Amino acid sequence: MGTGRPTGRRALQSVDVREGAGWHAWPLTDAQVDTLSTTEARKLVHIRPARDRRGGARWEVQARRTVGAVRLGQGDGIVVLRIAPKITVGRLLYLLAHAQDRRLRWQPDPVDASVRRDLFPAIATLFTRAAERALHAGPLSGYSGREDTAMMLRGRLRAAAQLRRRPGLALPLEIAYDEHTPDIPENQLLLGAARRLARRADVPPVLRAKLRRLDTRLEGVTAPPPGAPVAAWTPNRLNAHYVPALRLAEIVLRGASFEYEDGRPVSVDGLLFNMEKVFEDFLANTLGVALERYIGGRSQPHPRTHHLDDANEHILLPDLVHRLPGADGGLHPAIVVDAKYQEGVKRENLYQMLAYCTCFGLAEGHLVSAAGDTDGPPVRVPVPGGAVTLHRHVLDLRLPYTELAAGVDELARTIAAARTTTPRPRARAVT
User: Fold this and answer.
1) In this structure, which long-range contacts are made by residues 370-374, counting pairs with CB atoms below 8 Å and at least 24 apart in sequence?
2) Is 184 exposed, middle or buried (0-12, 13-18, 19+ CB in 10 A)?
3) In whole angstroms, how far apart are CA 392 and each of 65, 284, 340?
4) DSSP label at 261?
5) Rounded distance between C-alpha atoms, residue 372 and residue 417, angstroms
6) Which residues in 386-417 are b (16+ Cβ under 10 Å) and which e?
């Protein structure tokens, strides 16, 4: 890069920063600076030259809003970047679990004090416990569809394939049958998560050995390839004892990908979570369920069917729209909520919520931030035909589980009481 920075020093083992904290100075080589200056790395951290450079080539690094651990770069440019969440690891796991499942009735086990500061060891510990309990009586088995070529009929004949491949021949036969096998989505999820965690250098050796024993117990199961979509499964009576382990497995496998602003997924050597997305999903799921419980109707987390303009070119992306029955018997927007992973509400957030309310014909809009002392006063905006009131709420993520759940319920009651009962007429219907 031509900056005169020394490049002969030993490669950096790790850069440790904390979400929401200030700048931290680290001695970096030219190659490591290049690694942290890539597009992928700049989605995770800010980097700038240190003001005090008397100790050599020092650069300051500041975390953005993604937490976790990831290995970046190659050769001399390798950087192990670890970003600790500003909330506890146990609280992060609680948010992650509820961000995935709208009606979750499971809470992660308490995290041991010895591992609660590091995300990877904490998740590996909890996953290992849950998976060992799930597999205590042996892995689940289920029926899986198979297609094969055989000399004897088993299951049913694939007539179309038989005619296409062997017209006029009696043998061999193209058949399809159901096989009772442990190679089902539930076990594939467990195996994929166990192998991913076992490969991590920051997982303690004793824990890595337990993960490998899980691998052995899942013999005959196909592990999902890196970057593959998470296997779909449905909770039921048979896999109920698997659920805690499966939720953690999904967290591990989904955290192993990184998404650019254009939606391109990228497989990463690590585990990363965008805290803005985690908070938005957590609030939309838990608040939506609470609203349905208190006032009925139907909640839509992250709907993508609403547009700002008649040409449907500019999509609206509120985090939650709650619909209630109207005079015509149909469900219509009555509540709109947007989550903000920040302290307080900014001016541009008010403009955004005003656009939502205007398009939905609502007189009330609700913004929920993840930090702050108290709810801010409502903002009343005069509009033709009346006014729109923009409410500002705070949900403290640092609260214990029970108090956080109670806070969501209280927020639901507050929002339900301030809902729009008679939407103003709109120039066009919202699709």
Assistant:
1) 370/279, 370/339, 370/340, 370/341, 370/342, 370/343, 370/394, 370/395, 370/396, 370/397, 371/342, 371/343, 371/344, 371/396, 371/397, 372/343, 372/344
2) buried
3) 22, 16, 10
4) T
5) 22
6) eebbbbbbbbebeeeeeebbebbbebbeebbe
Phi-psi region for residue 419, left (φ > 0), alpha (ψ -120 to 50) or beta?
A: beta
Residue 401 and residue 98: Cα distance in Å, rounded? Answer: 11
Reading across the β-sheet that carries 331-343, which strands appear in turn? 298-301, 320-325, 331-343, 364-371, 386-394, 376-383
Identify whether the C-beta of residue 70 lies closer than 8 Å to the C-beta of residue 271.
yes
Residue 303 CA to residue 331 CA, distance in Å, equals: 14
Locus of tokens 């709650």: 322
What is the tens place of the pLDDT at every residue in 338-352? 999 998 889 999 999
- How far apart (Å, rounded) are the C-alpha atoms in residues 366 and 419? 9
For 376-397, the pLDDT digits (tens) are 889 999 888 788 999 999 999 9
What are the tokens at 205? 């050796």
Whole-number Cα distances in Å, 140 to 57, 188, 243 = 55, 11, 12
Cα separation, 7 vs 30, whole angstroms: 6
Q: What CA–CA distances, in Å, run from 49 to 12, 26, 27, 79, 358?
A: 17, 10, 10, 17, 45
Beta bridge partners of 321: 300, 336
pTM for this predicted structure = 0.76
- Contact of 173 with 198, CB cutoff 8 Å: no
Least Cα distance to 60 among 86, 20, 33, 89 occurs for: 33
Candidates 386, 313, 332, 380; CA nearest to 353 is 380
- How far apart CA 123 and CA 119 sit, in angstroms, is 6
201: tokens are 């250098």
Give the long-range contacts of residues 397-402, CB within 8 A, separation 24 or more: 397/87, 397/91, 397/95, 397/279, 397/370, 397/371, 398/87, 398/91, 401/91, 401/94, 401/107
Q: Find which of 39-43, 182-186, 351-355 is predicted with most confidence, using mean pLDDT.
A: 351-355
Helix (H) or strand (E) holding 349: helix 347-360
**Neighbour-count burial of 348, counting CB atoms closer than 10 A to its CB (0-12 exposed, 13-18 middle, 19+ buried):** exposed
